[in-house]
Amino acid sequence: MSLLKHPISLLTDRLLHKVGRLKTLTGDYRRVRRQFDEFRASKAGGARGFSLNWKERWLIAGENTNVTRFSAHYIYHPAWAARVVARTRPQEHVDISSTLHFCSIVSAFVPVKFYDYRPANIHLSNLFSGKADLTALPFETGSIQSLSCMHTIEHIGLGRYGDPIDPDGDLKSIKELQRVLKPGGSLLFVVPVGRPRIIWNAHRIYSHAQVLSYFTGFDLKEFYLIPDNAAETSPIEHATQAQSDAQKYGCGCFWFVKK
């Protein structure tokens, strides 16, 4: 009986979610149709040279909110990293598989080389995009002064992005990051933090102590925490281990310097 409990509960939760979502979409559809009819009745669209036809619609639901919603992890961690790069001003910055928003913006003031297991066909001045396997980086040992790998390591070896299944894929990747960084060089390293566990096949979540144990031979220059409730509060500068471990799915931003 206990074996059936979880699957049934899961199916019930999904069904209730879909029913609730359907009600929301139905309400949104009716609201948008009323707004369309009101807009058309005003003749504002045609009067200014725009065509207006209900068949040419793209219904946008859930955006009539009192505040602008955002993903705290993916707004705050690139903002933190960009500020670090702006402070250090390297001649060149190398990024491995972080969000393209970070690379594209930072390339406005520092030349950036971006590498991913699935290379991005992006074309901007000061930004190079190429292919690389994090478990076997194509760079010489001690060749990179400024390096970042953010919200990436937690996925390696879980197959999510087409990479081979490897329980130690994250550790192999960390060793590669350590290998290619110059002594005195900076590494901006971001992973989910909280109670250590694997959410299959999405990501790993690490404790603060785990991360530090992987980086012996490095100094932790800064730890910036994006807590579970960051969207309602704010990130925590110079956060503590206790604050990090108290999270369910926090975002830990580690600025390491190689000794």
List the helices and strands and how they pair.
Blueprint: H1 2-41, H2 44-47, H3 72-88, E1 93-96, H4 100-106, E2 112-116, E3 127-131, E4 144-150, H5 169-180, E5 181-193, E6 197-199, E7 203-205, H6 208-214, E8 218-226, E9 236-237, H7 241-245, E10 250-258
Parallel strand pairs: 1-2, 1-4, 2-3, 4-5
Antiparallel strand pairs: 5-10, 6-7, 8-9, 8-10
Helix pairs in contact: 3-4
Summarize the structure.
The chain is of the alpha/beta class and 259 residues long. It is built from seven helices and ten strands. Residues 1-5 have low confidence and may be disordered.
What does this 3D model show about the protein?
The chain has helices at 2-41, 44-47, 72-88, 100-106, 169-180, 208-214, 241-245; strands at 93-96, 112-116, 127-131, 144-150, 181-193, 197-199, 203-205, 218-226, 236-237, 250-258. With 259 residues, the protein is α/β, with parallel strands linked by helices. The chain folds into two domains: 2-47; 72-258, Rossmann fold (3-Layer(aba) Sandwich), CATH 3.40.50.150. Strand 1 (93-96), helix 4 (100-106) and strand 2 form a beta-alpha-beta unit. Helix 3 packs parallel to helix 4. The model is unreliable at 1-5 (pLDDT under 50).
Features:
eight-stranded mixed sheet, globular, Rossmann fold, two-stranded antiparallel sheet, 259 residues, 36% helix, alpha/beta, 7 helices
